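Re: the request from the purification team.
They wanted to know what the chain is likely to look like in 3D before they choose a buffer screen. I agreed to run a prediction and write the result into the notebook, where they can find it.
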Amino acid sequence: MRKTIEKFAEAIKRHEGWFVPGQDARYPNGSISFRNNNPGNLRYSRSQAGMRGGFSFFNTYQEGLEALCFDINLKFTGQTRTGLGPNSTLYEFFSVYAPSADRNNPKVYANFVASTFGVSATLT
């Protein structure tokens, strides 16, 4: 299960646009998620060091990655108030994780992550 969560986290990191300094001329200091050591662009984590621009920031990349994996695991196992659990679809997951109210497109997000695993975003 840990490997699946790590692969899932890596797909989220890619979709969130995590990149190091020098990869994009528009952001010479790296992406916001890079600068915040927050590969999932989490809005809150109990282990965050603080907040910047509405997102959690962590002291190290490893802390941010662990927070993302922890959040994914809680949602996968139904240990949150979100209504998500083991039988949730990827679309349902991303409707909570990256809601359209936050100017996200959960369907596009779900399809992106599903392509990483070679599965459908709508099947459990």
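For the purification team: The mean pLDDT is 94.
Please add any questions underneath this entry.
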